[in-house]
Design brief:
Layout (H helix, E strand, L loop, with lengths): L5 E6 L2 E6 L10 H16 L5 E6 L10 H13 L2 H5 L1 H21 L4 E5 L2 E3 L1 H7 L3 E5 L3 E3 L13 H5 L5 H10 L2 E3 H7 L4 E3 L2 H16 L3 H16 L2 H15 L2 H13 L19
Parallel strand pairs: 2-3, 3-4, 4-6, 5-7, 6-9
Antiparallel strand pairs: 1-2, 7-8
Length: about 280
């Protein structure tokens, strides 16, 4: 399937999603917000891969939400009829919820999602990458919570996630000033896992990490993602109880035995794939 904003390739159980509008700095036009969750859902539900890597083509990762699109939205609001003006708050709320869900799908996906970032990661792109499991960057990469520079508060996911990734004081400084944070500083504060000299090296290293993850038992990786997300949002006691409950129902001794045997024999493990999910019902 072809997309307006993305190229998708799947090889060796790794799905590689590339933002492919380099002439527009991979800005997020209306098609972007519909295509990304569709792509993620298809890969996850149909079990087409074990890991997802998101990167982009061109000198910049993404300049965030397309300015022209945002301006058109404001113009439509201004020209709306009297009755429409009365409920514009509700309409805005629903639209932002849709945009938020576009990035939440990365967090909700059963598969680990790795972001490979070069150049500018601006505005909505920060929202997107904070919803990924891990972030890797080139030396020339930078991050900007740009919304304050255009008179608005970032609302598509930056703050709820960023405050759990880096110190609160740094989040506040970036949010209040709109300044750039370099890849080096981002690594120092824990926003990115590693920094590489150029994009090709970045992609090679991230793909190697993805391949390592793809070699593990999918159910164990999925369980780890669920536990990490749950533990992040709950107390230690709740997290301990949840992992007990999870393993009581999900722990597969055959998978453990296969992993141990494969390690001993120095071969790839023969693991069960995650079950497919029905698109209509959400049932397996």
């Amino acid at each position: 399937m072809s997309y307006q904003c993305f190229d998708v390739t799947i090889k060796d159980r790794i799905a590689h999603i590339k933002l492919n509008r380099p002439d527009k700095r991979n800005s997020m036009i209306p098609d972007f917000w519909d295509e990304l969750p569709e792509i993620i859902s298809d890969i996850d539900n149909e079990v087409k891969a074990r890991v997802i890597v998101i990167s982009s083509i061109g000198p910049h990762f993404s300049s965030g939400m397309d300015v022209a699109t945002f301006a058109q939205s404001i113009q439509r609001e201004a020209s709306a009829g009297h009755h429409a003006q009365r409920v514009r708050g509700e309409a805005f709320y629903r639209n932002v919820a849709r945009l938020q869900n576009t990035f939440s799908c990365l967090e909700d996906c059963r598969l680990p999602v790795l972001a490979a970032i070069q150049g500018g990661c601006i505005g909505g792109a920060v929202d997107m990458t904070t919803a990924c499991d891990m972030r890797y960057a080139t030396e020339d990469a930078f991050f900007t919570i740009f919304e304050v520079n255009i008179g608005m508060t970032a609302d598509v996911g930056t703050f709820p996630r960023l405050v759990k990734l880096i110190p609160e004081g740094i989040v506040r400084e970036l949010a209040y000033t709109g300044r750039r944070i370099s890849a080096t500083e981002a690594k120092e504060v824990g926003l990115v896992n590693a920094v590489f000299p150029d994009q090709q090296t970045l992609l090679d290293k991230v793909m190697a990490i993805a391949a390592d993850i793809a070699s593990k038992a999918p159910l164990a990786v999925y369980g780890s993602k669920r536990m990490i997300n749950y533990s992040r949002d709950h107390t230690t006691a709740d997290g301990l109880d949840y992992v007990r409950t999870w393993n009581a129902s999900m722990l597969q001794r055959d998978e453990i035995a296969e992993a141990m045997t494969a390690n001993k024999e120095q071969r790839a493990g023969d693991f069960a794939e995650l079950p497919k999910i029905s698109r209509k019902s959400g049932e397996i």
